[in-house]
Amino acid sequence: MNQSLAKNTSLQIVLVDGSDICLTGTSELIKHQYPDANISITHIANDALNQISALHPHLLIMDICLPEKRGKIPQTHIGLELLKKVMQNHPKLNILVQSSYVKRLVQMKPIIDNYQGGFVIADKSLTSQEMLLRIDGALRGFTCIKDITDIYLYPAIYEQLNIKPEILKLLSLAFNEGLQDKAIAAHICVSERTVRNHWYTLQEALGIDCDELRNQGKNIRIMTKIRAREAGLID
Length: 235
Known about the structure:
Elements: H1 3-8, E1 12-16, H2 20-33, E2 38-42, H3 45-55, E3 59-62, H4 76-89, E4 94-99, H5 109-113, E5 119-123, H6 128-139, E6 143-144, H7 146-149, H8 155-163, H9 166-176, H10 181-188, H11 192-205, H12 210-215, H13 220-230
Parallel strand pairs: 1-2, 1-3, 3-4, 4-5, 5-6
Helix pairs in contact: 3-4, 8-11, 10-11
């Protein structure tokens, strides 16, 4: 949907961002380009779902670093879960992900590839003019995900994530919560041996040669964290 069409059609846009400054800036940018657009804004994931269901917008513009509730710290896993729910429940909704954490979307690439609606990614560092081009592309139903295809470093890991989604939980518990294998096993209700197998699967998919790292005197867990961050699996 281009600007001339927008002038004759009341655009409905839902804007979701945990930052007041970003909400204000993006809203003003949209209003300048699409003066007749109706923009509904929210800071939190739960409100966004309700607004989308009630308003049936032409476009969702969202960050993926969001608080679950008011007063909570914004986290990428909250935004990613929101995005998955939206894509599942509203498969033809045009979506623009505007975030400083676009790298995290690589773990959702198979889902994005099969999405029916427009799907555009925009890093928050883009200029206003570039951002408007991305918004226009999303409204037209285009797909633009070069921001993540450029960092699609370890294809095997994304295949493994489809088979074993618990690998993401393993990474979160180990590197975000600092848990050791025994505590991880208890948390996800599996044996320590299963946890070790998950580590092996993850490290193999990330191209990590554990024997070689041992010979070099390097810390395998730290190298795993570095590769996982490069692959966009953790912040």
